[in-house]
Amino acid sequence: MINITINGQKITADPNLTILEIVHQNRLDKIPTLCFDPKLPPFGACFLCVVEVASVPRLLPACATKPMDGWVIQTRSPKVVDARKTCLELLVSNHYADCFGACRLNCPADVDIQGYLSLTHLGKYHEAVRLIKEKNPFPSVCGRVCTRKCELGCRRKLVDDAVGIDYVKRFAADKDMEDDDMWTPETKPRNGNKVAIVGGGPAGLTCAYYLVLEGYEPTVYEALPELGGMLRYGIPEYRLPKKVLDREISWITDLGVEVHTNTPLGPDLTIDNLMGQGYRAAFIGLGAQLAKSMGVVNEHVKRVLGGVDFLREVALDKAPKVYGRVVVVGGGNTAIDAARTSLRLGAEEVVVLYRRTRAEMPANDVEIVAAEEEGVKIHYLAAPVKINSENGELQSMECIEMELGEPDASGRRRPVTKKGSEFVLECNWVISAIGQDSDLSGLKGGDGGDPEIEISKWNTIMAQEGTFNTNRPGVFAGGDVVTGPADAIDAIAAGRLAAFAIMQYIETGHFQKLRPIFASLRDNLKKVTIEDLTHIERSTRNIVHELPVAERIRTFQEVELPYSVEQVILETCRCVECGCAVSLACQLQDYCTEYGADQKRFVGEFKRHPVDASHPYIILEPNKCINCGRCVRTCADILDVSALGFVYRGFKTIVKPSMEKHLHETNCVSCGNCVDVCPTGAIVNKMPWGRSGPWKMEKVKNVCNFCSVGCNIEINALSPDLFYVTGAFAGEPNFGELCVKGRYGYQQLLKSSRLNKPYVRKEGQLVPATWDEAWQKIKSGLGNLRAENPDGSIMVAASPKLTDEELYLAGKMARTVLKTGAIGSFHHELSGADRHGLDAVIGTTSSTCGTKDLENADLVLVVNSDPTTENPVFGWRLKRLMKAGKKAIVISSSENGLTRHASLWLDARRGTASTLLNGIIAGIVRSGKEDANYLNSRTVNFDRFKRVITQINLDETSVVTGAHPDKIEQAVSMITAADQKVVAVYNLDSRIDRSPNDLKALTSLLLVTGKIGTIDSGLILLTDQCNSRGMELAGFEQHLLPGGVTVDPEMVAKLSHIWNDGLDCIKQGDNVPTMQKLRDGMIKGAMIFGENPAIDPSWAKRLEQLEFLVVADIYLTETAVLADVVLPLNSYVEDEGTITNWEGRRQTLVPLGKPGTGVTNLQMLANIYGIAGGNGLRDEALFEQITREMELFVPKRESELDNIGRFVSRFPTSDGKAHFEVYGTGVSITDVRVPDVLVLDERTNSRLSQLFGQ
Amino acid sequence: MKTVMVGLATCGISAGGERVYKAFQDELQNTDFVLKETGCIGMCYREVLVSVSNGNGTSYLYGEITPDRVKRIVTEHVIGNKPIDEWLVSGENREIGFFEKQHRIVLRNCGVIDPGSLEEYVAAGGYQALEKALKMMTPEQVIDEVSKSGLRGRGGAGFPTGRKWSLTRASKGTKKYIICNADEGDPGAFMDRSVLEGDPHAVMEGMMIAAYAIGADEAYIYCRAEYPKAIARLRQAIMQARKAGFLGDHILGSGFKFEIKIKEGAGAFVCGEETALMASIEGHRGMPRIRPPFPAQSGLWGKPTNINNVETFANIPWIVLNGGGAFAAFGTDDSKGTKVFAMAGKVKRTGLVEVPMGLTINEIIFEVCGGIMNDKKFKAVQMGGPSGGCIPAGLGETKIDYQQINKTGAIMGSGGMVVMDETTCMVDVAKFFLAFTQVESCGKCTFCRIGTKRMLEILERITSGEGKEEDIDTLAQLGEQIKIATLCGLGQSAPNPVLTTIRYFRDEYEAHIRNKKCPAHVCTPLLTYLIDAEKCNGCTLCVRSCPTNAIVGEKKQAHFINQDLCIKCGKCFTVCNQGAIVKD
After folding, report:
1. CA B107 to chain centre
2. What is the pLDDT of residues B217-271, one digit of tens each?
């Protein structure tokens, strides 16, 4: 151990650890790194992890430096922080990519627009609304009245029109609202902190919303009779129906916001007495609701109104009865609103007077167009000079024409009067809508009043930008009252940020402006132009339909009609997805935020590469690559594939496939481990649902179901039908690695053709049915069958993909209530696996050793398997061991993923592996190298075996197998070298090099040399199906009982007691294999769970002849179409239970939401169990009950193979010894049989497509 | 022996040496003179070099020989025995200074023997050191002798060779490698090439002695493919050595066995870095890796490996033969022996010199190399290639010594010296070297890959007149960060040319940025060509040479340059024989 000092703290550390490891293990700091990968040796490329060591002039990469005794290390000195910031700035200066779309960056409230467009596209309206409401609780309102700064920023505008973002938002929000199940957040438990909100407009309500979410207790004080502020009193009904507003407001207040309406600030309610009433803080969101005066003579005569006053009166149902000609002065939205409202109230003619031209008009363009359609006349370049009145009543208005002069401070050209152009406009009403002011009179308070809150010269409250605090402690302000009249979205943005500042203030007494999230933006490096978007096809924006003019101008009915679903799908597709699919899950972005990096500091040349989306599952975006090399090293060092590498030199260096290939043209194995290690968005998954995201997914730990390795996976789910899989970094068995099956196999489950309801056969046709109909049909079907046939005429087949619990229950059901011993799996039939080949030899046909033994072994023998394609994660591990020097003999007729790294590759012809193994055994025995002690103490029948085996000679073996005699002799000497620990690997389901009795020969070889049932030696039996081992342990085999034991009277008696059943079907000792019975026509009815035997025509023919067939599966398979009843199964991501991998590692599946079929697989089995006559298995207690019962046979533990191999003292045979069998040990050519089924094509891919029978 | 030797190293060949050789072949047919080729003699400024020996011990060296001069040499000197005085370089009053202060250990045979002849190498004392080591010394004694010599790695970093050897010897493992780094990549440096071309056996003998000392049996010479002549020489030498029993099993009857392989590099500068070099030999991309582990512990294919460069190995036989003490007698306290320098730039005598450590820069430039060309003002010298730095004339008294050179901000490097005079723009020089290292970065480290690019962009901006006031600070700051936060020597030294020029010539940077002027009149965008009306005689030469018709003026009257049209090509400046065109 060494003594070092880190950040002033003295530490005793292991000198073999790096600084990074020591710092993280001791939780001294979080050192940033982009290139370090715990699974790989240090690389030292990004230099972000640098630390400073006293007296060492250079900064040292913490990821690669092991400290020396006495070092004084600083992980956050100014020099270090500065270097890290520069490092990040250099990286992002060559990161031509957008973290977020310009839409989001333009949105004052920072709403994840691209995200909700994608969700809406997929019909995920609740999820879309949930996403919007992270930043804006008023999507329905904003979907109607927002000024749409997002659309102004939309990149699509470079091609054609901006995406109709706001319309999509309205659609999603309305859909969410129409649904009874409107999305509602969970609020944190109340924390007793009261906050007063003065003003119930968008700012105040938003503030209240985010406070109440976090458990704070806001109270809203509103001067007017109802909440909503300008949304209610400033925006007319035809633009924003009050019922929409009411719904969205009540949705907020229902979360627990106290409301006092008709309670204005003033003498009775001052900030002082609010703060005295126990409020920890106050938020002032008074808005700006006073109409500005025009400043002309006679402004205060009758029939001259302020715009906002007019609109408020209308909203309060006190609308003045306007008539004749109405002149509206102003060019903003209020002016247009007033004009259109006047029309609806009965005005014959409405003229808007605006002192500039259309181009400068601040009102929304769509509003102006709509107003003109409705007949509103707009008189540009004119301004009022004087009101002509008589007896205090309006007569006419004197106006003057204007022209545009020099630009003013706002950049708009200043209107100047045109001398002598005065004219008189006869009118009955004048509405002045030239701006608003805040009414701050209430703030002055009563006697003595509030201590003055600082007010600006524009009559707004002075509040700090970003934190919204006023000069008075605990008093915050936001919205129009601070900024002057602005948009609803600005007030919403302010309300939310103020809520966070208030919470910070209450919790800590101080507050800081939130550090802005770093956003890489292509425009920072080079303005994006139409040339960058040439790949985008032109498509015009979907038009929103409106009420016909004639219809709408006399009512206040909403003018804009919503998009249709079709329009929404088309419109969301128009989004060009500028933002990154992994934004906010990007380490580069996180670090840039943390260190305050500035993307523009080093603007210069940057690299631009085409995106490579050629691969079916993976997208390469080299523009985002930061050359950390994690993918390159993962692909080379972990997988030995090297599909990616560094290309070019100097600044141009980039990670991509060599020779300018596309990824799909390389030897990529589609494992996607590069995606998991990429610290930014340079390598991303291609999502099967079209849109790229970004997606905010919940992570659920689960277990892969595609082979017997049983890898830990993480389901990233938005909903049970929208998810993807990544590796879970949880140690054994896969340490975060996945293969193509584990990572992308899930895409099979997203098919729309999934079964989600039962089908029954009616008049020869399969038709959709309810569960009850299905149960009924099964009941009568089984009843008839059993009435007409003897016990044992029904078979139950199940896939080794089902869970342990399901298999156990299926077996119990068959043997007890159906009284049949005919159980088993078609899978073994289809793969031709010698599933019980070793039962008579060593008492079990399962692995006798585990991964630890594999690691400790001196020699590995690989027979009839290419784990690099069949069980890749296991295979890669084996390959790494071999590359690191582990000796291995591979017996394979053709080159496979391991042969290159093998110490010895014995290329026996196909189907001759057992001959070869026999030859090797003969060689060993003949040369007297067998393990005599072991053979004596642990085995029987060796002498008989020896007599037969020694008749084999080397030359014959060589002739038959094609393996060179020298190589065979080499194998003999390798296996028998002194003190060798030998592990053999065999795949039961593999068909490529299958030969009759090869598994027995392999086991005999291990027995002869004493390498089985001994520590660090033994047999690893892999299978293709994930739960093959679980099937045995659950006793779902004709001759096995739960616990995986063979049928013997003692066990049967025990089981009979527990199951409370005579178990005659077992006791009768029926030795005819189940499948044989089916073939021979002895089976009359069947239930098949999750298997598709009908892909084999001979089985299909048999199944067709059955009297009654029930099939449960996740698709309507070839087998299902033959059934009388089809039941929908849940897939492994929706299922509950455990599955057991080849090691005996029993792992728990965590279901993703409720079962899509409505019934869990286990409950479905339990129901059939009940229908068939069993009882006591129901509902919630079911799972626990089964688990408890199974526990008696199969104790749940992590792995039955942990630490030491199994059977080190005795084998699970009756006498505890291994029994040599004399199998067909000959060598003549006639013994060589080519396996029945040849699978020569790309196994992985064809397997994938066969998954679940598809 | 009566011989005529033609210098046929790459330098001689490129000056036309092969044609001279051919001419001698024809002319000498009926004489008793033997025609030979030899390696680099050092005087690149006088190529093609030919030496004529009459067999009585004296030899005459001719410079700047062309094929048409051959006949006269043969007639007058070879046959007539009368040296042609005006072509001699080593005769009376000629170039005495060039060799006077040199002491040739590494170059002892270059230009003296025929490098294609093992016999000549042996005759010159070759392989005696190997024999001595194998037969009379233990490996430890060899290492002791090398340690005693004070020899430091000549590749640039200057790590004590003896220590490196003993570290590799101490590493566990039965399989060990020797690597000779012949990936000489500095622009303007050709020391190693000249040694390989002129005396390949010396390098190999050094490697053999090293292998014996550390217990290696296999070696690679990593030589850049741009050195075809050197590679050919090495291949030939390896064959000769194998045939003569200097390579293979039981070398010189001892139990020592050794093989040398050549690996041709593809020309990546970074492959001169030892870990990148090893990656390249292993077939990977030439990318440096983190050290430790050092090659001495885990090098080529994970085995202990000793890497030295060509010049280091070439010193070894001499040290073993003459003793470490004899070597240590040369040089300073810190730096022993001699050092070969490739002299380039604005110096009168360019070429290869080998001087004892401890000479001053001024001595090398003014005494050995005869001073600055055209007697202009000495401004600075770039030492250590692109990784080195600029030493200003004011520090000309700095001694050639690892420590002293480091103090200036430059490094000894492998021996490149580029001499600059007053017409050199220091910003431009910095840009040149940085542009080189930038494209040669392996692309691994952030600071090297992007940082040097950004520095280069700033320099480009400055030299094109768009410099900003804060640029110098940014360069200095970024440069320091690149130095301290990159993995290998390339990145750690890449900013040196910029940092040293900022340190010594900050005023030039400021002139570019603030005044938008290049004081040395090098940076084209900052130049203005003007016509001095006093001197212009209106000859119209310039008018006719101007490609853009930017010069106007009547005949015999002062002309005038229209700056809007001028593209600053400088043609007028070249053609004007009145000196009337002025650069500003």
Report:
1. 13
2. 999 999 999 999 999 999 999 999 999 999 999 999 999 999 999 999 988 999 9
Could you give the angle at which helices B471-484 and B496-510 cross, rounded to 10 degrees? 170
Structure tokens at A627: 């050359």
Q: Return the structure tokens found at A44.
A: 């030292």
Please list the residues that pair with A377 across neighbouring strands.
A351
Q: Residue B46: pLDDT above 70?
A: yes
Structural contact between residues A1192 and A885, judged by C-beta atoms closer than 8 angstroms: no
Over range B301-321, report the average pLDDT.
96
Amino acid letter, A936: N
Closest residue, chain B, to A649 (C-alpha): B442
Q: Do B447 and A47 touch (CB under 8 A)?
A: yes
Exposed, middle or buried, A391 (CB in 10 Å: 0-12/13-18/19+)?
exposed
String of DSSP letters for A798-864: E-TTS-HHHHHHHHHIIIIIS----EE-HHHHHHT--TTTTHHHHS-SS-SS-HHHHHH-SEEEEES
List the 421-440 stretch of B: residues with Cβ below 8 A of A: 438-440
Q: Where are the beta strands (DSSP E) in B167-285?
A: 177-182, 218-224, 259-265
What is the rounded CA–CA span in Å between residue A565 and residue A543?
13
Give the per-residue pLDDT at A1205. Answer: 67
Nearest to A1219 by CA among A878, A910, A837, A901: A837
What's residue A1231's pLDDT? 41
Peptide bond into A694 cis (omega under 30): yes
Q: Judging by beta carbons within 10 Å of its beta carbon (0-12, 13-18, 19+), is residue B188 exposed, middle or buried?
A: middle
pTM: 0.90
Q: Cβ of A1153 under 8 Å from any chain B Cβ?
A: no
Long-range contacts of A1093-1099 (CB under 8 A, 24+ apart): A1093/A797, A1093/A826, A1093/A829, A1093/A830, A1093/A1119, A1094/A1118, A1094/A1119, A1094/A1121, A1094/A1122, A1095/A830, A1095/A1119, A1095/A1250, A1095/A1253, A1096/A830, A1099/A826, A1099/A829
Tokens for B320, please give them: 């073993």
Of B270, B450, B486, the CB nearest to A93: B450
Q: Which residues pair with A766 in a beta bridge?
A: A761
Would the CB atoms of B484 and A87 count as touching at under 8 Å?
Answer: no
Q: Which amino acid does the sequence have at A847?
A: S
CA A1176 to each of CA A1057, A1111, A1181, A1186: distance values in angstroms, whole numbers, following the listed order: 16, 24, 10, 11
Half-sphere exposure of A241 (CA within 13 A, CB side): 14
Q: Which of residues 287-306 of B touch A (CB under 8 A)?
A: 287, 289-290, 292
Residue A1242: pLDDT over 50: no
Neighbour tally for B381: CB within 10 Å: 29
Task: For A841-898, write each residue's pLDDT tens digit.
Answer: 998 999 999 888 999 999 999 999 999 999 999 999 999 999 888 999 999 999 999 9
pLDDT given for residue A1177 in this prediction: 64
Taken as a whole, chain B contains a residue count of 584
Q: Per the structure block, which two tokens stand in for B91?
A: 């005769």
| Cβ separation A651–B268 shorter than 8 A | no
Is A1253 a residue whose pLDDT tops 50?
Answer: no
Task: Report how far residue A561's alpha carbon sits from residue A545's, in angstroms, rounded to the nearest whole number.
Answer: 5
